[in-house]
Amino acid sequence: MDEKIRIRDVGKVYGTTHAVTALEGVDLDVMDGEFVCLVGPSGCGKSTLLRMIANLHRPTSGLVEIETQRPVPWPTAMVFQDYGIFPWKTVEQNVAFGLRPRGVGKEEARRRVAHWLERMGLTDFAKTYPGNLSGGMRQRVSIARAMVVEPEVLLMDEPFAALDAQLRRLLQEELLAIWQENSRTVVFVTHSLDEAILLGDRIVVMSARPGRIIGDYRVPFERPRTPDIRGTAEFSALEERIWAQLRAEVRRAPGGEPAGAMDDNQREVA
To answer: Which domain of life is it from (predicted)?
Structure first.
């Protein structure tokens, strides 16, 4: 595979008088077509790093580069935890929003929108406004809006964190199927090791602030992959291995539990 995203010695400092170093010395390569999950304690800079890849934040030091295949302003699309869709636009209008700036013609736009409305189970809600949708349906709109522009890189910032456990599991499985159909480069921020192992090709572990990369794990399950892997001994062993490294970072992070207070069976990173 060819290199798609290159991150070299990236640092991020917020403020001047009371400066906070969010990231320090981050190096990461993501290959074309690879699904990489970022995990780490709250406040370690995962979302900051994701926004740098999206060109929404700029690093204080270092560089972030994406190898593009097409002449577009920036080859990414992003899905946020809080959906990020427009309440005054219908589902159909939200999904179509990014197509005109990318120069997609009307007929092609209609075709793409119809395809993703159908793929995400939204066809019957095309004229509905987001305020009349459940959280799960709003996140489906957000995913459809990202996928319809056919991004070279899909960035997802804890997209299922606000959903209940059953709906979260359902959307994880739908995303797994969608990625295996499209095989785009994905960088996915999550607090859930279960989610990361199910979805990812690699799991990149970040330290407590200032965020650095302290672990990089290859997920050993072949593609296409099904949710049944959750029940395997290999799945549990990998989850345990990653958690063994991450546990100390969670305790060290602001608001982390004191040593000995955290349940060793916990796998949802605080």
So the answer is: Bacteria
Distance CA 266, CA 199 (A): 19
List beta partners, residue 155. Answer: 78, 187
Task: For residue 224, say if its preceding peptide bond is cis, omega within 30 degrees of 0.
Answer: yes
On whether the CB atoms of residues 163 and 155 are closer than 8 A, the answer is no
Question: Which of 170, 237, 245 minimizes the C-alpha distance to 214?
Answer: 245
Q: Whole-prediction pTM value?
A: 0.90
Listing DSSP states for 105-166 in one string gives -HHHHHHHHHHHHHHTT-GGGTT--GGGS-HHHHHHHHHHHHHHT--SEEEEESTTTTS-HH
- Residues of the chain where predicted confidence (pLDDT) is lower than 50: 258-266, 270
What does the alpha-carbon distance between residue 256 and residue 247 come to, in Å, rounded to a whole number? 10
Tens digits of per-residue pLDDT, 189-234?
A: 999 999 999 999 999 999 999 999 999 999 999 999 999 999 999 9
What domains can be seen in the chain, in order of their start residue? 31-57+154-270 (3.40.50.300), 85-150 (no CATH)
* Phi-psi label, residue 150: left if phi above 0, alpha if psi -120 to 50, beta otherwise: left
Q: Looking at this protein, which amino acid is placed at residue 8? A: R
